């Protein structure tokens, strides 16, 4: 192709590009800039508050009139509020300081279990409140969904914050959930495989989604540990689960089966697992495997009091947990967070015992820096179930 021909072809294709409106798509309208500034200022106050208008103008490189207008808008809408005064210049003059209102919006976390349902609300800074536990046995039926949704609606009606502040409802299940959070992919514990969110949406006038309980718990760990980018979270609750976090995102894998370590077989002749196979990790390392029907609080009280029989069971439990952690660690050299219902009972001496066991198994020099106890040892699943809605709000467009 001659130079002239090539030149003309390029000009033509550029004309086509412009006339098809690509430029319009790429340009930003004044309205979008204004909306973006509002979001930037809100997020700045969220992270740094209480702050003065001067702080915001300096750090965000925005004009004082822009800041003033946006602060007025955020304050009149109730997203932020005055929060004392801070020195604004060298002369020590005071300026009004602003913080976000954490109760501007809430999300509801619901943890669905075999015989119980746990509910709470979470505010914009991740604080939970109004926790309620209901005795409601799971059934794979419309009757159950109707009863549960009735309870959720009653719970929301009873909240002092009012319905219009609810962003959405996260429903956590002991089961795997599909990528768009609408269907249970694998739910043998409750026999709820195939359950669809549409059955809940019929009764709930709020956005709602499903969550795998281990992922919900791992998300609450992400929330409380901003320094962690990669880790493997062990949800040691009634049942065992896990979640892999990479670059602060949950890795679900090709078919959604990533991190289902509970079904890695340890002993083919072992106890029957709910999946139908024998001797899965679930039958060694879950809380129900440890307790074997005994009361949780009594077990740990006896353990710490030095009861020899209970200590023996605990030692065996830690041995298998160390085996699993070591195997996983050989596959993925990362931080291991021990969470779920177990977290509240764990002591640093238990972690040392795990390292002692692992040192007998690993071929590598012993480094005792990668196992830690969850920083959110209580209600991590229920809180985590609400967090996706809180994150979406904070990263969203602040549209009412
Ligand atoms: Zn299994």
Question: Secondary structure elements and their pairing?
Answer:
Blueprint: H1 3-19, H2 22-26, H3 30-48, E1 51-52, H4 53-60, H5 64-77, E2 80-87, E3 94-100, E4 106-112, E5 116-123, E6 128-135, H6 142-158, E7 166-173, E8 176-177, E9 184-186, H7 198-201, E10 208-212, H8 213-224, E11 231-236, E12 240-246, E13 249-251, H9 282-285, H10 287-291, H11 296-305, H12 308-331, E14 335-339, H13 348-359, E15 371-373, H14 380-395
Parallel strand pairs: 4-7, 7-10, 11-14, 14-15
Antiparallel strand pairs: 1-3, 2-3, 4-5, 5-6, 8-9, 11-12, 12-13
Helix pairs in contact: 3-5, 4-5, 8-14, 11-12, 12-13
Residues 263, 273, 275, 277, 280, 282 line the site of zinc ion.
CATH-assigned homologous superfamily of the largest domain: ATPase, nucleotide binding domain
N-to-C CA distance: 56 Å
Instruction: Give the SSE string.
Output: HHHEHHEEEEEHEEEHEHEEEHHHHEHEH
Helix content: 40-55%
Count of all domains = 3
Strand runs, count = 15
The strand order across the widest sheet is 6-5-4-7-10
Mean pLDDT: 92
Strand content: 15-25%
- The first-level CATH class of the largest domain is given as Alpha Beta
Q: What is the CATH fold-level name of the largest domain? A: Nucleotidyltransferase, domain 5
SSE class: alpha/beta
Low-confidence parts: 17-21
Oligomer: single chain
Please tell me how large the radius of gyration is. Answer: 26 Å
Q: Describe the sheet with the most strands.
A: 5 strands, mixed
- Cofactors and ligands: zinc ion
CATH architecture of the largest domain: 2-Layer Sandwich
Shape: globular
The number of helical elements comes to 14
């Amino acid at each position: 192709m001659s130079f002239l021909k090539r030149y003309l072809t390029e000009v033509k294709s550029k004309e086509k590009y412009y006339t098809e409106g690509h430029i319009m798509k790429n340009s930003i309208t004044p309205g979008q800039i204004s909306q973006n500034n509002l979001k930037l200022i809100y997020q700045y106050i969220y992270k740094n508050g209480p702050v003065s208008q001067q702080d915001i103008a300096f750090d965000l490189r925005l004009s004082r009139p822009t800041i003033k207008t946006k602060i007025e808008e955020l304050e009149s809408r109730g997203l932020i509020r005055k929060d004392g005064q801070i020195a604004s210049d060298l002369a020590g003059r005071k300026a009004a300081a602003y913080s976000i209102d954490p109760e501007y919006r809430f999300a509801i976390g619901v943890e669905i279990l075999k015989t119980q349902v746990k509910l709470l609300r979470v505010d914009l800074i991740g604080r939970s409140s109004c926790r309620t536990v209901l005795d409601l046995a799971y059934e794979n039926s419309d009757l159950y969904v109707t009863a549960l949704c009735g309870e959720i609606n009653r719970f929301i009606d009873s909240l002092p914050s009012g319905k219009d502040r609810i962003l959405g409802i996260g429903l956590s299940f002991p089961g795997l959930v599909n990528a768009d959070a609408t269907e249970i992919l694998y739910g043998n514990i409750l026999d709820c495989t195939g359950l669809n969110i549409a059955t809940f949406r019929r009764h709930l006038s709020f956005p709602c989604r499903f969550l795998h309980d281990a992922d919900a718990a791992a998300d609450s760990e992400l929330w409380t540990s901003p320094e962690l980018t990669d880790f493997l979270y062990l949800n040691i609750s009634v049942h065992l689960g896990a979640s892999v976090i990479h670059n602060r995102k949950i890795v679900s894998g090709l078919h959604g089966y990533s991190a289902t370590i509970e079904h890695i077989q340890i002993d083919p002749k072992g106890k029957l697992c709910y999946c139908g196979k024998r001797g899965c990790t679930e039958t060694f390392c879950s809380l129900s495997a440890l307790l074997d029907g005994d009361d949780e609080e009594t077990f740990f009280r006896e353990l710490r009091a030095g009861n020899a029989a209970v200590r023996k069971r605990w030692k065996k439990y830690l041995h298998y947990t160390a085996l699993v952690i070591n195997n996983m660690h050989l596959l993925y050299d990362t931080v291991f967070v021990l969470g779920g219902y177990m977290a509240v009972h764990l002591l640093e001496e238990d972690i040392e015992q795990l390292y002692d066991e692992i040192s007998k198994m690993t071929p590598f020099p012993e480094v005792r820096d990668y196992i830690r106890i969850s920083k959110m040892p209580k209600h991590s699943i229920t809180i985590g179930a609400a967090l996706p809605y809180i994150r979406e709000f904070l990263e969203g467009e602040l549209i009412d």
